[in-house]
Amino acid sequence: ADAAAGKAKAQMCAVCHGPNGLSTAPDAPHLAGQPALYVAAQLRAYRSGARAHEVMGVMAKPLTDADIDNLAAWFSSIKVTAQLP
Amino acid sequence: ADAAAGKAKAQMCAVCHGPNGLSTAPDAPHLAGQPALYVAAQLRAYRSGARAHEVMGVMAKPLTDADIDNLAAWFSSIKVTAQLP
After folding, report:
1. Does B54 reach chain A within 8 Å, measured CB to CB?
2. How far apart are CA B1 and CA A81, in angstroms?
3. A84 reaches B (C-beta below 8 A)
């Protein structure tokens, strides 16, 4: 998979999921650092309709398998750290 | 919602989603810092079956609405930072 191509493709994700993969919408998850396997599985599920979401169904519909693998490679390449409150 | 009660309840989540909400399983997402609204919506969807996942269906089944709101409060209270590669 090509993370650089994924990064370019991810511009359309940034409106809700943030330019660095940290969500800017209260109903959208952070994608930064998510396991590639998980991201790819969710995008395929949105594309097929197995996972239902009005916006994500539309976003995922035109994605090719390569697009999905590239997006998954990109988001998983972002490093995240967590600090407990 | 009671984030401290959510933290206690979240022990069962840690096997896959990590003690600090950073996933330790390649097919499980990070939950650290996820918007409370998103976490609660997903847990309700797993509980009802609207979102299908073998493990999460079982985990979410016994959760009360209060459990879900507390878990969402807990995970959303974890601070995450992202660093682009």
Report:
1. no
2. 25
3. yes
Whole-angstrom Cα distance, residue B9 to residue B71? 7
Whether residues A80 and B80 touch (CB distance < 8 A) is answered with: yes
Are B33 and B75 within 8 A, CB to CB? yes
Question: Which of B20, B37, B85 lies closest to A27 in CB terms?
Answer: B37
Q: What is the DSSP letter of A63?
A: -
Q: Which domains does chain B have, with CATH numbers?
A: 3-77 (1.10.760.10)
Residue A31, both tokens: 């994608």
**Can you tell me the distance from the alpha carbon of B17 to that of B27, in angstroms, rounded to the nearest whole number?**
10
Dist CA A50 CA A56 (whole Å): 12
- In terms of CA atoms, which chain B residue is nearest residue A19? B84
Condensed to tens digits (0 to 9), the pLDDT of residues B32-80 reads 999 999 999 999 999 999 999 999 999 999 999 999 999 999 999 999 9
Chain B CB contacts of A8 below 8 Å: none
